[in-house]
Amino acid sequence: MRGAFTNIPVVDVSALAPGAAPEARAETVDTLRDALERVGFAYLAGHGIPRAAVENLRELSRRFHALPDAEKMALKMNDFHRGYMPFSTSTIVTSTVDKVTRPNQSESLMVMHEVPEDAPYAGEPLHGPNQFPEDMPELRDAALDYMERLSALGEMLSGGLAEALGLPKDWFLPYFDTPTLFLRLLHYPEQKDEENLFGSAPHTDYGFVTILAQDEVGGLEVRNKDGEWIPAPPIPDTFVMNVGDILARWSNGRFVSTPHRVRNLSKRDRYSQPFFYDPSMEATVACPEEFIARGETAYSKPVRYGDYLLERLNKNYDYRKKAS
Ligand SMILES: O=C(O)CCC(=O)C(=O)O
Ligand SMILES: [Fe+2]
User: Fold this and answer.
1) Residue 93 pLDDT greater than 70, yes or no
2) The complex's ipTM?
3) Percent of the chain scored above 70 by pLDDT?
4) What is the structure's pLDDT at 101?
5) For site-directed labelling of 152, which of 18, 162, 171, 310 has its Cα 20 to 30 A away?
6) Which residues, at least 6 apart from 231, have a Cβ–Cβ distance to it below 8 Å?
7) Domain coordinates of the chain in residue numbers?
8) pTM of the prediction?
9) Ligand 1: which residue has its CA nearest to atom 10?
10) Whole-angstrom Cα distance, residue 260 to residue 241?
11) Could you give a single Gene Ontology term from the biological process aspect (predicted)?
């Protein structure tokens, strides 16, 4: 039953890799289906991403956030949604989860897919340059390398998700020709335990899937159908994966996009690095014909992913509100 959970399942996804035994793959797909229909969250084990890639980026994120404010402010978010978001500047007003009134207690560096200067779509909404500190070239290298590795993982997962929905393994591929990628390097200083104060206020994610690496501090919580907040503490060598709103919509409501939040009550700084793997901006997200053929009714209208995304971003980020 949707939202009926008191813990977040661990799914070993190694059998989704090419060459795995078909029986093992089928079993993994079943486990994934249960997790995403009931919980909307799963810990991914057996994902094949080296621990060093995760830890190296985390260390660089720590170094980035330790830079003087002036250096970070020089990289302030540009119109293309890339750059530094200072403490207390994003309030999730489109959250359907709760009335959110106090800004998030976090700062972050937002990195997206790179856009070559001569690309035909350069300069269009959300297609522009990333911003990295000049004297930390290793941060740029690590972030781009990490996005490449996690995109490959996202693509592998999309095969399992398609099968979990009764679709051919490659069903999602054409919609991810030029995927929309976000890597957010988050820093949550310790926060007070006060009502309505969050590192990240209750929300659902916009996109397809989120693949999150968190440090050892903890603080992420996921809401079940009874309104209880279930902790999602770090488990070494796993990622926390969750369904975003566009996947919930695409799956015609089968997979759930589950509310979650962060409170860092640990008395230590917390660092996390969510990666959002989303379709191409041009992709039209519509209920699969295969579902209609099976007698289902589409519960939402087709939407161009880029339009949907812009609308959500314009509402939620202070720096964009003037533009919308
Ligand atoms: O930092 C975390 O653990 C979660 C962050 C999150 O939910 C988000 O950025 O959407
Ligand atoms: Fe989230």
Assistant:
1) no
2) 0.99
3) 95
4) 66
5) 310
6) 218, 220, 221, 222
7) 10-323
8) 0.95
9) 205
10) 12
11) ethylene biosynthetic process
